[in-house]
């Protein structure tokens, strides 16, 4: 438990940041899950639409500092490859 006034403030700030990061990460994971579900279902149109919605969410999560910039690029790249692969098969 924090004893100093500054430590109490840092604790409050950390809690707020933690909640903000959790919210952003959850939104990102849900967007990724929608893309993956559409790919697994074999629906190229739904997968493409879900990818278009997911890319800004992932990029925004990185711009907020919740995840690293390269992590977001890797996620976007892998999702795009999966969607392109299913479109090529369709």
Describe the structure.
With 90 residues, the protein is mainly alpha-helical. 87% of the residues lie in helices and 0% in strands. The model has no long low-confidence stretch (mean pLDDT 96).
Ends apart, CA distance between termini:
58 Å
Question: Taking all residues together, what is the mean pLDDT?
Answer: 96
Oligomer status: single chain
Number of strands: 0
The biggest beta sheet, please? none
Whole-number total of structural domains: 1
* CATH classification class: Mainly Alpha
CATH topology: Methane Monooxygenase Hydroxylase, Chain G, domain 1
Number of helices: 3
Jot down its keywords:
single chain; 90 residues; mainly alpha; 87% helix
What is the compact description of this entry?
By secondary structure, the protein is mostly helical. The protein has 3 helices and no strands. It is 87% helix and 0% strand.
What layout of secondary structure does this protein have?
Elements: H1 5-41, H2 44-63, H3 69-89
